[in-house]
């Protein structure tokens, strides 16, 4: 939040404020995802696996490149925190900040989730979103954000003075440790900022603080992704439930989330290849 100003405005203050903004990262030169081909490939696709993320807990899952995965609401309105890594190299992981810079604060069909430096390539493409009808509400809120971090025990301790062990950060840490065999401390270092699946968020008009409100998700709703590279994922069913009141709580009703993995229709992607890592030479001017 900006504090009340202590500095008198200059004579040209209004003219400085009136300068029109420009988009930092125009994406006109990005190769567009082949959505028509993905839509064709998802027709008659075959489900090959499923995983449940229990309430107030997390689960890991693996998706081969060229396959689809879907996160669905079951039993009740529930949001989830999603982490993604390259299955064979945990140092390549989802980069929420760069994804936000390229696609905006909230994602939907046709947007991509980008990986960290030095790789900076598409990890997934969103191929279907049953909440795309929501758009933007009167409060400036929307769903599937890449602006929040993840609820965590450190901030909880800072603000409340107490320890809570089922924040999404801790849930993701435990799940990754269990999946990989890494010690908790090593696994925690790989947990990163998330895609807040189904969460309805924005910034308040007066103080521009990050807000949450009741998610519009209902059982049967889903968001679906195409795996551009081999993926290891972890999904936490947030202890905030639908995030209508609070998070990091055992009092809020919480529900499981379903992750399903699908093989595309045979032959639909016969000549498709995963994207290469970023081709910057990493000389950094030397």
Walk me through what this model shows.
It is a single chain. Strand 9 (195-203) and strand 10 (210-213) form a beta hairpin. The two termini are 39 Å apart. It is globular, with a radius of gyration of 20 Å. 17% of the residues lie in helices and 28% in strands. Helix 5 (168-180) crosses helix 6 (184-190). With 286 residues, the protein is α+β, with helices and mostly antiparallel strands. The chain contains six helices and 13 strands. The longest helix has 13 residues, at 168-180.
Helix content: 10-25%
Number of domains: 1
- Distance between the first and last residues' Cα: 39 Å
Write down the overall geometry.
globular
Number of helical segments?
Answer: 6
- Give the low-confidence spans: none
Task: Indicate the proportion of strand residues.
Answer: 25-35%
Determine Rg (CA atoms, Å).
Answer: 20 Å
Quantity of strands, as a count? 13
Q: How is the biggest beta sheet arranged?
A: 7 strands, antiparallel
| SS-derived structural category | alpha+beta
Please trace the helix and strand order, writing H or E for each element. Answer: HHEEEEEHEEEHHHEEEEE
Q: What's the mean pLDDT score?
A: 96
């Amino acid at each position: 939040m900006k504090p009340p100003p202590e500095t008198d405005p200059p004579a040209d203050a209004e003219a400085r404020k009136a300068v029109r903004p420009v988009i930092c990262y125009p994406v006109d030169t990005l190769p567009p995802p082949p959505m028509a081909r993905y839509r064709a490939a998802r027709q008659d696709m075959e489900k090959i696996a499923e995983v449940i993320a229990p309430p107030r807990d997390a689960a890991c899952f693996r998706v081969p490149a060229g396959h689809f995965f879907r996160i669905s609401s079951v039993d009740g309105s529930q949001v989830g925190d999603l982490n993604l890594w390259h299955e064979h190299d945990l140092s390549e992981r989802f980069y929420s900040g760069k994804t936000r810079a390229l696609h905006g604060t909230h994602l939907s069909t046709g947007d991509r989730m980008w990986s960290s430096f030095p790789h900076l390539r598409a990890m997934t493409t969103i191929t279907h979103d049953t909440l795309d009808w929501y758009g933007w509400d009167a409060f400036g809120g929307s769903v599937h954000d890449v602006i929040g971090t993840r609820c965590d025990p450190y901030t909880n301790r800072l603000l409340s003075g107490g320890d809570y062990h089922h924040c999404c950060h801790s849930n993701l840490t435990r799940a990754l440790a269990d999946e990989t065999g890494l010690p908790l401390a090593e696994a925690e270092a790989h947990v990163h900022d998330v895609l807040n699946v189904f969460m309805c968020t924005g910034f308040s008009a007066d103080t521009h603080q990050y807000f949450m409100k009741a998610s519009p998700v209902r059982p049967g709703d889903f968001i679906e992704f195409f795996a551009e590279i081999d993926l290891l994922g972890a999904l936490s069913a947030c202890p905030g439930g639908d995030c209508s009141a609070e998070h990091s709580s055992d009092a809020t009703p919480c529900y499981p989330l379903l992750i399903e993995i699908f093989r595309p229709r045979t032959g639909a992607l016969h000549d498709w290849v995963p994207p290469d890592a970023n081709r910057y030479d990493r000389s950094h001017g030397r």
